[in-house]
């Protein structure tokens, strides 16, 4: 019912030239993919990546967006600029942004609103850290993060967003949530959306898992009924690895 979505988060890696090389290598490998395929590239790579994906099934995403339309915000990029450069998706609220750059649930919400108003599809990251999981706060936390992030969107807009459940302790660590843990927490997120926006909306929203997803574990995770795709960091930097994840059914 929901089209799976596999998105790469390149983080602070690849120059524009390297971005083109990686996309050129990726294109033939993912051309038959059933999933939506997205590469979220550094901002300076967006224009080159948008040219490189032309005529293919790969979409380009950014890794952050500012919430204002324009103005005195040195170093920031508006949704309008990101769209004009050729991106159609944007990661918002990645744990690295929350941890190192002071982003809060409230600014995540403002960024989501700016993205949606400008026709970008947000990939909204939520997830608990190790201490929060051990203290049994995971469910309450991801519900709160999700509902705050969506505040102000209409039900029709909520249907189109993508949510990435990313346990912080699993990002870049090689540790992965078990298939069941990931499925259960994504189920909690979907139920929270259902309570606020109705079952029809909740059943339409695509919710990814992220956190050391790789060719070796993608099948098990994607076999879970609640998991609609993945947000992939490290393994998205090699065309063969990312393609194997995208083609997880093959
Ligand atoms: C991420 O950055 O969103 C991520 C999941 O990274 P990794 O796959 O490297 O854990």
Question: What would you say this structure looks like, in words?
Answer:
- It is a single chain.
- This protein is of the alpha/beta class.
- The chain has one domain (5-246): TIM Barrel.
- It has twelve helices and eight strands.
- The protein has helices at 16-30, 46-52, 79-85, 95-101, 105-117, 130-134, 138-150, 155-160, 179-197, 199-204, 218-222, 239-246, and strands spanning 5-9, 36-40, 58-62, 89-92, 121-126, 162-165, 206-210, 229-232.
- An eight-stranded parallel beta barrel has the order 1-2-3-4-5-6-7-8, surrounded by five helices.
- Helix 3 (79-85) links the parallel strand 3 and strand 4.
- Helix 1 (16-30) crosses helix 12 (239-246), helix 5 (105-117) packs across helix 7 and helix 7 (138-150) crosses helix 9 (179-197).
- The longest helix is centred in the C-terminal third of the chain and has 19 residues, at 179-197.
- The radius of gyration is 17 Å and the shape is globular.
- The mean pLDDT is 97.
- The structure holds phosphoenolpyruvate.
- Phosphoenolpyruvate (PEP) binds next to strand 8.
- Phosphoenolpyruvate binds next to strand 8.
Order of strands in the sheet with the most strands?
A: 1-2-3-4-5-6-7-8
Topology pattern, helix = H, strand = E: EHEHEHEHHEHHHEHHEHEH
Task: Tell me the domain tally.
Answer: 1
Q: How much is the radius of gyration in Å?
A: 17 Å
Q: Give a list of the ligands.
A: phosphoenolpyruvate
- Shape summary: globular
| CATH hierarchy: architecture | Alpha-Beta Barrel
- Biggest sheet statistics: 8 strands, parallel, barrel
CATH topology: TIM Barrel
């Amino acid at each position: 019912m929901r089209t799976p979505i596999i998105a790469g988060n390149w983080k602070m890696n690849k120059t524009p030239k390297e971005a083109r090389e990686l996309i050129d290598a990726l294109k033939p490998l993912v051309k038959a993919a059933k999933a939506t395929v997205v590469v979220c590239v550094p901002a300076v790579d967006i224009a080159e990546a948008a040219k490189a994906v032309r005529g293919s099934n790969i979409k380009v995403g950014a890794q952050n967006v500012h919430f204002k339309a324009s103005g005195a915000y040195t170093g920031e990029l508006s949704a309008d600029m990101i769209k004009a450069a050729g991106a159609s998706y944007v990661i918002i609220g990645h744990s690295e942004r929350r941890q190192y750059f002071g982003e809060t649930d409230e600014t995540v919400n403002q960024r989501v609103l700016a993205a949606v108003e400008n026709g970008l599809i947000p990939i909204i990251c939520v997830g608990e850290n190790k201490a929060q999981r051990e203290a049994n706060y995971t469910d309450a936390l991801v519900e709160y993060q999700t509902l705050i992030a969506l505040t102000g969107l209409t039900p029709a807009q909520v249907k189109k967003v993508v949510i990435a459940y990313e346990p912080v302790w699993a990002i870049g660590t090689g540790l992965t949530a078990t298939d069941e843990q990931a499925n259960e927490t994504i189920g909690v997120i979907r139920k929270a959306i259902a309570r606020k926006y109705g079952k029809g909306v909740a059943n339409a929203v695509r919710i990814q898992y992220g956190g050391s997803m790789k060719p070796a574990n993608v099948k098990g995770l994607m076999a879970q009924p609640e998991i609609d795709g993945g947000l992939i960091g490290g393994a998205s930097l090699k065309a063969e690895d990312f393609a194997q994840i995208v083609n997880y059914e093959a």
